[in-house]
Amino acid sequence: MSARIRLGMVGGGQGAFIGAVHRMAARLDDRFELVAGALSSDPERAETSARALGLARSYSDFNDMALAEAAREDGIQAVAIVTPNHMHLAPAKAFLAAGIHVICDKPMTATLAQAEELTAIAQASDAKFILTHTYAGYPMVREARRIVASGALGKIRVVNVNYVQDWLATPAAGKQADWRVDPAKSGEGGAIADIGTHAAHLARYVSGLPIDTVAADLQSFVDGRAVDDNAHVMLRMGDARGMLWASQVTPGFVNEVSLRIGGEDAGLEWSHLRPEELRFTRLGEPSQILTRGGPFFEGNARVPGGHPEGYIEAFAQLYSDAADAITSGDMPADLPDVQDGLDGMRFVAACIASSRADGAWTAL
Amino acid sequence: MSARIRLGMVGGGQGAFIGAVHRMAARLDDRFELVAGALSSDPERAETSARALGLARSYSDFNDMALAEAAREDGIQAVAIVTPNHMHLAPAKAFLAAGIHVICDKPMTATLAQAEELTAIAQASDAKFILTHTYAGYPMVREARRIVASGALGKIRVVNVNYVQDWLATPAAGKQADWRVDPAKSGEGGAIADIGTHAAHLARYVSGLPIDTVAADLQSFVDGRAVDDNAHVMLRMGDARGMLWASQVTPGFVNEVSLRIGGEDAGLEWSHLRPEELRFTRLGEPSQILTRGGPFFEGNARVPGGHPEGYIEAFAQLYSDAADAITSGDMPADLPDVQDGLDGMRFVAACIASSRADGAWTAL
Amino acid sequence: MSARIRLGMVGGGQGAFIGAVHRMAARLDDRFELVAGALSSDPERAETSARALGLARSYSDFNDMALAEAAREDGIQAVAIVTPNHMHLAPAKAFLAAGIHVICDKPMTATLAQAEELTAIAQASDAKFILTHTYAGYPMVREARRIVASGALGKIRVVNVNYVQDWLATPAAGKQADWRVDPAKSGEGGAIADIGTHAAHLARYVSGLPIDTVAADLQSFVDGRAVDDNAHVMLRMGDARGMLWASQVTPGFVNEVSLRIGGEDAGLEWSHLRPEELRFTRLGEPSQILTRGGPFFEGNARVPGGHPEGYIEAFAQLYSDAADAITSGDMPADLPDVQDGLDGMRFVAACIASSRADGAWTAL
Amino acid sequence: MSARIRLGMVGGGQGAFIGAVHRMAARLDDRFELVAGALSSDPERAETSARALGLARSYSDFNDMALAEAAREDGIQAVAIVTPNHMHLAPAKAFLAAGIHVICDKPMTATLAQAEELTAIAQASDAKFILTHTYAGYPMVREARRIVASGALGKIRVVNVNYVQDWLATPAAGKQADWRVDPAKSGEGGAIADIGTHAAHLARYVSGLPIDTVAADLQSFVDGRAVDDNAHVMLRMGDARGMLWASQVTPGFVNEVSLRIGGEDAGLEWSHLRPEELRFTRLGEPSQILTRGGPFFEGNARVPGGHPEGYIEAFAQLYSDAADAITSGDMPADLPDVQDGLDGMRFVAACIASSRADGAWTAL
Questions:
Q1: 8 A C-beta contact, residue B146 and residue B298
Q2: Where does the GFO/IDH/MocA-like oxidoreductase domain start and stop, copy by copy (chains A, B, C, D) (predicted)?
Q3: How many CB pairs under 8 A join B and D?
Q4: Which residue of B has its CA nearest to C25?
Q5: What is the C-alpha separation between C82 and D326, in angstroms, rounded?
Q6: Cα dihedral angle (D201, D206, D208, D211), rounded to 10 degrees?
Q7: Could you tell me which of B271, B244, B274 has the C-alpha nearest to residue B258?
Q8: What is the pLDDT of residues A327-339, one digit of tens each?
Q9: In a domain, C206, yes or no
Q10: Do D153 and D55 share a structural domain?
Q11: What is the interface size between C and D, counted as CB pairs within 8 Å?
């Protein structure tokens, strides 16, 4: 075992959801040690949060943190950015400039212009940029990707992806909801950015196909909401055709992500409701239920098949991959990067443009 | 019990699939007796098929049949039309003109023009016109419709409907496939007509909303196929938004019909994979699994809950309703009629037009 | 097509559940025509019920019916006996004596002594005796039986079967419940006879193994109930071991029948909740979902795979097999007969004896 | 946040399964820090393993470790014992004697006599003894326990629990299997001890009822196997009746744990296949799908509902509870302790005795 990678965090103060997830994910496989943070822009809250986590060093400003940590021999090697979307670009720039690897929550930025700026910077930097598209960390999603890449599906024809929630079905309330429906913080996109980018990434990640053009119909169902809360999108992905549904207002669907891919020779289905399974069907043969740890499985497994892994483990996989990237200097092929982040923001921008143009097909 | 209604059949000779289904459906609840048929346009096959079924009277021409049966005191009271799509209009006209009730398979016709002609004729006729949109016969689909109509969902926001098959994933072979991919027999639409009309009807039937406009992307994936075999459609239904996916080329999906509806206050999910269940979720409450024959169920049940009913029973429900319609003179509200057939063909035509216009929103 | 077999019915007057099921099952595949009945021991109710069904001939006494029908040239060829358990033996004897085939509901009799008497009579008779163990009519149950018989599972080790309901969880009320909890009508067994015989038959039918000995723990949970309403049984089946749970008092389980069989080389799972599927797993390979009408399926299918068949269709399969038996003179191997009925009553008697002996292993 | 609890480990060297699980579980909620270990009885392997984990202190003998750590100011406060069953007692005694809290894998010991000895010692010690019955850490298992305790089920009648695997269906091979089928290491019980104790604990834990007597049929199906690999058990739990099936030889069941409980007023079903759900049915009402994080949920959640937690999280819950116990001095009511371990070994011994007595009811 290599020594643990020293990790910092921007955002993720007390009460934050995704910051706590990043910390559990970083801890699970024991490749990181959280030692510093700028956990809140409110100095007092930053300090209290840092103390509660037992952090060695607490900052109230991420710029100070980047400079100070870069100057220390025992400074952080990587930073997790877990602020709202509009606060991704600035810290990412600061840490990349300081030569510190960045693990950034999604969507990558609030706007496409920010994404383009960040992409240029990240590509010019020696530090790695990693984007936490969680679903890319699920073992059976990776297994699906491997199966598609092996050619077992033949030429892909159809991609259908859904990401459906209900927690924003009423005028939002609470810390998690507030910033997500405020364009100043979330960016122009609502559901299309918050979960639509996950769905779009999943479709691309498994199919191996780009999303070339979209025809989108975005809607804000809740009165007074300034961003979309439901998105219907038709996709063209090379010669394949697809559909994407992202909704945060459909009662009964807490967090249902599902993907179906049909090729000339075989088809695949994965659902977040049973993440440890993959239904794989060759034309003319019975459907097979492939499982993590089961026959033919080639991926990573912390515990044997039948002992369910879930969301935190998927997230932890991204952190383990990030540790590999940082240690080896090479980005693993399965790990989302800045290009995925740019693709995501192009998708958001194209969907918004298409929807404003009454659903006209719009290139990414 | 009233005496059984005397039934005739056009089409449905030996080897036909849907004709046999109509006969089982007509028999199940014992409201009909099949006594006459023009089972094939090939006189010999018509005769052989009629003998095999023990029919009292066999015809080789449906026009002759309509005239002869109308003239008999013991002539048929209703006729089932189970020919390929392009052969629906002519027999329907003949029997309606003879005052004989028509039970017609879907889609109603091969073209919208035919549908309009038939609608005018049917509306002017004293005879009933019934369209066998099978899914409207499933008890839990009707329960879903009742729940929506009760207002339990509040204002509907989102409708998502899929009908996915794989049996036409390769160049078609066999009697069932051949006519479905031949525009001369199926009409302009392929999957969009054959199963897309089912999906569209299901969406309208349960939601109670019209499909006003569509943006469609139709595709023929199989080389040389003259009709679409995959259809992606975005829907506008009043203030609601929807998506529809109809595919006959997605491996692993034998015949999966599913419907999800989200309203302001509650949501519903139904799947043909478990047709006896309905998932119903009021916002902020646990999902409930409503079942046929279970608590609060108000529909029809031949056997107690837990003893699964399926496709034939759903089809039989339409025949029982038809028997009610014929006996009472009043169309039951839950029974698809000529207007549903016209709506279906308008949907097909609009989808084709939209797809040709590169997905432009097209009114029905 | 052969002419329809003329069928009579004993029991099944208005309000009866299982009589109506037998009639639908007999009708579905169009092999029978119901022409006569002694539908109730109450002459007036018998007559009213017969008229409602449009029967040609109604009797108030099954002995009269057996004699009269046997004497007619157009008399019934087979009779369905759908009375409560204690009223199976007498009519079965009467019709067998008259040379009329008997299709009898389960359990075969109220007591083992009656079962032994009936078995001797049936075996000596030229008329067929058919027992409607419904689950033996499900296509995927038969597929499971075929797979086991093919040797694909290797030597069988474990058989686990459940039949769980909740409708008798409270002191019974209503026509269906009343006779089932009255030992004078149901016989000594309650749940163990009413549904336990189904479960035991299913275990034997698919595994191909006899139930040799049982260790049983029967219970009457509802106050004042004179028969068991929950049964736990350990089974020895040749070298295999099994468990059987039959319950009519477990809330949330409407009518859940499930079977799991493990052999040296492969395992099978079937559940009545998804009757069209069979999970089949060879050791070291992914589970396969086998389906009616799907790849490798060798059974009977009225409608294509993906169009669900259910309980009535399974029941109808027994009637179609009965029609084959009557027409050909040979009992199909898949059709439950008098020996199955005797096995069932031996199972009930052994379970009751074992339970009274505090669970001592008791041979059948 | 309190400082992390200093943790040691006995067993769990390289290649061990459950040791790695304990470490992930201890890490996830950041309440422990692993600082010392006697990871193997082979000194070299102990040292290599400790170095790979970055442990501060490595021992080759657990007695030395207990003494040395107790003597240090910064010595471990708790120890995880993750050796094979026969090596639980001795280290547990050593650490309890040293005043160090013990977190012990299950089953508690190899024999009942050992369990009784350990119970006496643990009850006399000020140090805590915690047993890692993992399933007691699943949020929806705890929710089930809470619901039963609330009286919502009324008086419990039936408890049905299964734990079914297939990984020992052939003569065992590999490190994990070898010791489990060696009575010198596993103890007298095979499947009944390894997974039967989990199932028995789950039944008791949720129902709140003791297992008073058992009637068991144990079997060793694999040739030459010295311990049972399949166990069928009937249970008497107060006035309730139950069944338990533990199998390690049933193909197709990787690690399926399921529990069904029926009371007078309501029933519950939980399955490890979908651990985040609980089916709850009040008699006469629709089944409800209760979920972690969903309406009415009162338990602990690291991530929102719909983001699946699994096995590691359940295990981590036991560690978090252990941290609470250690910090506060009070054992949380939901945390398995030495009495649970003793109950488990009494269950194993009673099952073996019953099976040897041909299934005679045997008190625990």
A1: yes
A2: 141-268
A3: 30
A4: B28
A5: 66
A6: -40
A7: B271
A8: 999 999 999 999 9
A9: yes
A10: no
A11: 138
